[in-house]
Design goal:
The protein is mainly α and 64 residues long. 97% of the residues lie in helices and 0% in strands. It is built from one helix and no strands.
Length: 64
């Protein structure tokens, strides 16, 4: 009886360890995805700022 309980406990612990490892991988992937999205956002903001600058120069040249 006691051997069966230890076997069951060992099995559950192994399952939990596997789950933790999978969650760690997922967290790592999510961090990478977040970094990629932040870089994309930064690039998009820079592009928008350049475009706004061009529009402002056009508007200024119209006012001359």
């Amino acid at each position: 009886m006691q051997s069966g309980l230890f076997t069951e406990l060992e099995s559950k612990i192994e399952g939990l360890i596997e789950e933790v490892e999978l969650l760690r991988l997922e967290v790592s992937e999510l961090r990478q995805a977040k970094q990629s999205l932040e870089e994309d956002r930064s690039q998009n903001e820079q592009s928008l700022q350049r475009l706004l600058g061009k529009f402002e120069r056009l508007q200024e040249s119209e006012n001359l």
